[in-house]
Amino acid sequence: MARIGMDPHDGHRSAFRRPDREERGDLPLNRFVFERAAYEAVSSAPVVPARGPPGSPPAGLGV
Q1: Is the pLDDT of residue 63 over 70?
Q2: pLDDT of 62 above 70
Q3: How far apart are CA 19 and CA 7, in angstroms?
Q4: What's the average model confidence in pLDDT over 2-13?
């Protein structure tokens, strides 16, 4: 998971953490700055799958 911080006009990503490896703590990343309004627009939009839900698994998978 990326650490995201917000300023009045910009957002920035500055660290990364893997929940399955908490003992490593935050891994530093080069600071990446982006427009806050664009981030908020994308992060609040509903996720629409590219196609419908998956069907039954193919025969022979042992499921």
Answers
A1: no
A2: no
A3: 25
A4: 88
Average pLDDT over the chain, rounded to whole?
81
Q: Please tell me the distance from the alpha carbon of residue 34 to that of residue 36, in angstroms, as a whole number.
A: 6
List, in order, residues 6 or more apart from 31 with CB less than 8 Å away: 12, 13, 14
Residues 6+ apart with CB under 8 A from 1: 16, 17, 18, 19
Cβ proximity of 34 and 43 under 8 Å: no
Through-space distance between the first and last CA atoms of the chain, rounded to whole angstroms? 31
Beta bridge partners of 28: 15
